[in-house]
Every structure is written in structure tokens, then in C-alpha cells.
Specification:
- The complex is a heterodimer of chains A (283) and B (283).
- By secondary structure, chain A is of the alpha/beta class.
- Helix content of chain A is 27%, strand content 25%.
- In chain A, the strands form 2 sheets. Chain A has a 7-stranded mixed beta sheet with strand order 3-2-1-4-7-8-9, sandwiched between helices. A 5-stranded antiparallel beta sheet of chain A has the order 6-5-10-12-11.
- The longest helix of chain A is centred in the N-terminal third of the chain and has 27 residues.
- Chain A is globular.
- By secondary structure, chain B is an alpha/beta fold.
- Helix content of chain B is 27%, strand content 26%.
- Chain B has a 7-stranded mixed beta sheet with strand order 3-2-1-4-7-8-9, sandwiched between helices. In chain B, strands 6-5-10-12-11 form a 5-stranded antiparallel beta sheet.
- In chain B, α1 packs parallel to α4.
- The two termini of chain B are 27 Å apart.
- Classes of the chains: A alpha/beta (283), B alpha/beta (283).
- The interface between A and B is large, with 43 and 40 residues.
- β9 of chain A pairs antiparallel with β3 of chain B.
Chain lengths: 283, 283
């Protein structure tokens, strides 16, 4: 049983502030970022322990936050494989029909969630994403992409508001609520240590969702809509494959969500992982 | 039984200088790590004593500065912690659901002679009186608790703060951590001894629940807000209930304490009432 985890930082217990990665090269920032990375890594490890205990034989972690290398590789569970880095070949690399489930750790609520701690969708300028009219955040988008491969979203660890969002979108998925956002920059939280216990327990439970939870299928064709707070699109400069509705709004339509994301991010649609076999099969 | 603890940094044993959050260099980064550790040690000692006395729930408000000062790596995982900035209210989890409230790391109010790091909120305030009761931050906390019918039973901090709170709330248990001798000097206990005393005091505080009256205010409530520097323009129109006495002093009148607080701090989200929340697995 292969489980694919997408990680983010903003839903990790103990983190209530944005990653200070653009706040300069200084000791305060370096220490804060190391602490955040360690907390994320330990939540990932807790999730992996739970998933393996629940029957997973392979866990792939997509180090999804920011520059894509937040997880502390020196302290990660050795049974995990990590996909990390920037300039990636496609969206959610390694997520395909060979996975049995998808999960998320460090999950924050989507943009516009009233009391969601660090709630946002991709950048803070985005007002919202919609897939075929359904409002989604980053994690909802990933759940739809997994659903296209027939893979169910089974587990959400993060802010209470993210857990509610995902349980509404994917009935039956298990949540591990480790904090309760009260505003963008504040939350009631348990300690990182207690969060790990909750996440491990929840992840083990979530393995039972495989075969029970319905994959979140987007259908075909797929219509994606993206709205921004500020005018960011120029109707005079159309982007290939995209419809600029107005300066705030962009739409993309494609046969599949995978095709759609390749268009959105300019990925090579024919890219396939050269690693595929036999390296992954040995596990 | 739920206990609500407010924390601050300036009353922690071993602290006699202001925290500098602007200096991002390594020396100050290490110093701030130590401050976080010292505060967390005192908070843990209080939690230990409270749980031993029979409280079964502790919510800690990480109240100092930017709202993320407690070191969550060593914080007691049996408590929940409210942290972060731009909060919907100063003390959103202090409500009638709490059996009692107290303070750790508390400093004396502004203008206290010999009070170590004495201040009220910021350096701008010279004196606050609410219906002739002179209060600092901790006194205001006790009044807000009283508004909800909750007694203030415990304070750990500078001896001048302890005396202040004994006078404000007769019968509360206080634990002096240091003897302030000037704004930036004090005779202090080393952290280990400080924590022993906090643990004992917090355990004893349970007994104060029955003999300490929640602070009650007669209606109307008059808040007199005196500033160090000339701050207000007597010619300028004021919202209803606010009177400018002179450039240093204004008076705010309201039906009750929260009515006055809303006039003093109009930017909070007073409609926000947090749900009862515990971290855990959601199915």
C-alpha cells in the first residue's frame, strides 16, 4: 500500500506566523526556520509511523512548502522517500494511479476562511480557486488531482478549519486537528509533542479509509477558476490555454485536471519519471 | 475545572532587561531563546501545580510581545496554548467557562517605584484607573475575569506585582520571583528555585477559589487613561463616551467593563466567541 503525503508548514502545531524566509539572512530568522522545519519533520514522521502501522508499505512525502525543501532530511523517518526542491517537472510529482491514498500534513485552510490560521491559497493574493464550481484550497486541488487517478484523500493533519474544509469536501477522511485558528496570525494550539501523538493515531486510523473513502473525481472536462484580490491579469496579453475573464479572474478548461495543471504551470505534459522502475518497486 | 493563565516575560525570574525584538544578530537570538526557555519553565511549573491540585484543563495565553514567546519544545503538552498576533481579542479564552485565572511572569504596573520592568502595555501609559481602582495589565486581566464571574487566584512575578495583586484581589496566592530595585535591576531567584516555588504556589492557589471574590465593578464604569506624553487634542471630536480631560488624560465611560474596553480598543473583533475546542482525531 503506497501513500502519498503532501506537506505544508502553515498547519503545523506551534507555527502561527508566516515562514520568515524572506526576512533576511540573520540569526533570528535562521533559528525560527530551523525550529519550524523540525516541527514539520516530526509531524511527518508521526504521520508515517501511523500510516505504516495501519498497513502502508510505502510512503512518499512531497515537501510542499515554499521553496520545497523545508523538511529536515537528517531527521526524517528512514522508511520515507522525499520529493523535494524547486523547478519541479509537474504538479505533485510521483502522485499517480499506483498510489493507494493521498494525505496532507501541516495543512492550512483555504483563502478566505474567516478564522483560519495562516489561511491562504498558494499566494496571499489569491481570493479563491474553483474546480468545476467547487471552491477549493491547495489541499482540495490535490485531492481532486488524486481523485482523477482513482486515489482517495484519506487524512488531513493541521488547523481545525482545514480539517473541517477537507472533511466537507471528502466525506470519510480522517482529521487530526492540532490547532484552532482564531485569526490569520493567531491560534489555540497543542504543543508539537502532543500534536505528533494525535497525528500518529489519526494516520493509522486513516488507513482504514482506503477502499471506503470515495476518490474525489473532478470529471471531464475540468474547469478551473482563479480569482485574485488585485488586478493581476492583462486581457490584452492572453496566456495559452487560459481565458482571462477580467483583470482579477482567470479560467482554464481541459480534458483532465492533470492537463489543466500542466497548462497552468507550463509543465511538459509528456514528462514521466525516469526513476520509476525498479527503484520504487523494491520497496 | 479549567484554569486560564496569562503569561508575560518581564516578571520571569532571571529577566531584568527588556526583550529586544529588533536586534536579529546571533547574540540576541540566543538570549531570546533563553528567555523563551525560562518562561516555559515557569509556565510548566504552574501547570504542574495546578494539575496536582485538581484542575484538569489549563489554557495558557502566550501574552508577551509578538505572542509567541513560550518555548513550545519544552512546554507541558497537557496544556493548550493561545499564541500569535492580530488576535480577535486580548484574552479570547478567558470566559465563564474558566474556573479561575492567574498570571505567570507578571510585572508591576506603570509608575511603580522600584518595579522591575514596570509598565502598562507600553511605555506610553503613566496610569490607568478603572472606577478608582488603579490597575496594570494583570489588574485589568483580573477585572475582565471578574466580568465573567471568574476569580483571579494566582500571580507569579516581581514582588511589586505580587503586592499590587494582593491589594487588588485580597486572598489571591502570589509567588515573588524577584525583588525589583529599579526599572532594570532586581534581586532574583535562580530558575530552578523559582519553579519550585511556582509549583507550590499554583497548587495552593486551588484553595483560593472558594475565598476569592471575582472582581465586580459598579455601573457605569469610568476608565481614566493617563499618558506619559501629551497625546490628545482637546479640540478634536471624540466618539461617544470618551472625554479628553487634558493633553495627557482622557476618560472613557460605559455601561460595564466590556463596553468601556470596546471604546478603548475599537479594533478587536468583539463578535468572535471561540468554540469549545480540544485537539484530536476527527472522524
Amino acid at each position: 500500500m503506497k501513500v502519498y503525503i503532501v506537506t505544508d508548514l502553515e498547519g503545523v502545531a506551534g507555527v502561527t506566523q508566516w515562514d520568515p524566509r524572506h526576512e533576511g539572512n540573520n540569526a533570528a530568522t535562521a533559528l525560527a526556520r530551523r525550529r519550524f522545519a523540525r516541527w514539520l519533520t516530526e509531524e511527518v514522521n508521526a504521520a508515517a509511523r501511523g500510516l505504516f502501522a495501519g498497513g502502508a508499505t510505502e510512503v512518499i512525502v512531497n515537501d510542499g512548502h515554499g521553496a520545497g525543501q523545508t523538511i529536515d532530511v537528517e531527521h526524517v523517518d528512514p522508511r520515507i522517500k522525499i520529493f523535494h526542491g524547486t523547478e519541479r517537472p509537474n504538479y505533485c510529482t510521483g502522485l499517480d494511479e499506483t498510489c493507494d491514498a493521498i494525505a496532507s500534513v501541516g495543512t492550512h485552510a483555504k483563502a478566505g476562511t474567516e478564522h483560519g490560521n495562516l489561511a491562504h491559497t498558494m499566494g496571499t493574493g489569491v481570493r479563491g480557486y474553483w474546480i468545476n464550481g467547487v471552491s477549493v484550497g491547495e489541499t482540495g486541488l490535490q485531492a481532486f488531482l488524486a481523485g482523477e487517478y482513482g486515489v482517495p484523500y484519506v487524512f488531513c493533519a493541521g488547523d481545525e478549519w482545514a480539517v473541517r474544509e477537507m472533511q466537507q469536501l471528502v466525506p470519510g477522511c480522517v482529521g487530526a486537528a492540532v490547532k484552532y485558528g482564531t485569526s490569520t496570525l493567531s491560534a489555540l494550539t497543542c504543543t508539537p509533542q502532543r500534536a505528533r501523538e494525535i497525528i500518529e493515531e489519526g494516520a493509522e486510523r486513516a488507513m482504514q479509509g482506503i477502499g471506503e473513502v470515495e476518490p474525489l473525481e473532478p470529471g471531464s472536462p475540468v474547469l478551473f477558476r482563479e480569482e485574485h484580490h488585485e488586478p493581476v491579469f492583462d486581457p490584452e496579453e492572453p496566456r495559452e490555454g487560459c481565458r482571462i475573464i477580467d483583470a482579477h479572474t482567470l479560467e482554464i478548461e481541459a480534458d483532465t485536471l492533470k492537463d489543466l495543471l500542466d497548462i497552468k504551470y507550463g509543465y511538459d505534459p509528456d514528462w514521466t519519471p525516469a526513476w520509476a522502475q525498479p527503484w520504487f518497486e523494491e520497496a | 475545572m479549567r484554569m486560564h493563565i496569562m503569561t508575560d516575560l518581564e516578571g520571569v525570574a532571571g529577566v531584568c532587561q527588556w526583550e529586544n525584538r529588533d536586534d536579529t544578530g546571533p547574540a540576541n537570538a540566543l538570549r531570546r531563546q533563553r528567555l523563551s526557555r525560562l518562561l516555559a519553565g515557569e509556565v510548566n511549573a504552574a501547570i504542574e501545580g495546578l494539575l496536582a491540585a485538581g484542575f484538569d484543563e489549563v489554557i495558557v495565553n502566550d501574552g508577551h510581545g509578538s505572542g509567541s514567546t513560550i518555548d513550545y519544545d519544552i512546554a507541558d503538552p497537557r496544556a493548550l496554548y493561545y499564541h500569535g498576533r492580530e488576535r480577535p481579542f486580548w484574552l479570547p479564552f478567558l470566559s465563564d467557562r474558566c474556573a479561575a485565572t492567574g498570571a505567570v511572569g507578571a510585572h508591576s504596573r506603570a509608575s511603580t517605584p522600584s518595579g522591575c520592568l514596570a509598565h502598562t502595555m507600553s511605555g506610553a501609559i503613566r496610569r490607568w484607573t478603572i472606577n478608582d481602582l488603579e490597575v496594570g495589565e494583570t489588574g485589568l486581566q483580573a477585572l475582565i475575569a471578574g466580568y465573567h464571574g471568574v476569580p483571579f487566584i494566582f500571580a507569579a512575578g516581581d514582588i511589586w506585582l505580587c503586592r499590587e495583586m494582593e491589594e487588588t484581589v485580597p486572598g489571591c496566592v502570589t509567588v515573588p520571583m524577584k525583588y525589583g530595585t529599579s526599572k532594570h535591576s532586581a534581586m532574583a531567584l535562580p530558575p530552578q528555585r523559582a519553579c519550585e516555588l511556582i509549583r507550590e504556589g499554583a497548587e495552593r492557589a486551588m484553595e483560593a477559589i472558594d475565598c476569592v471574590e471575582p472582581l465586580a465593578l459598579e455601573s457605569p464604569v469610568l476608565w481614566r487613561d493617563e499618558r506619559v506624553d501629551p497625546t490628545w487634542d482637546e479640540e478634536e471630536d471624540q466618539p461617544e463616551g470618551i472625554t479628553i480631560v487634558n493633553a495627557h488624560v482622557r476618560e472613557i465611560v460605559g455601561e460595564d467593563l466590556m463596553d468601556v474596553i470596546q471604546k478603548v480598543y475599537p479594533n478587536y473583533d468583539y463578535d468572535f466567541a471561540p468554540e469549545e475546542w480540544t485537539p484530536g482525531v476527527r472522524t
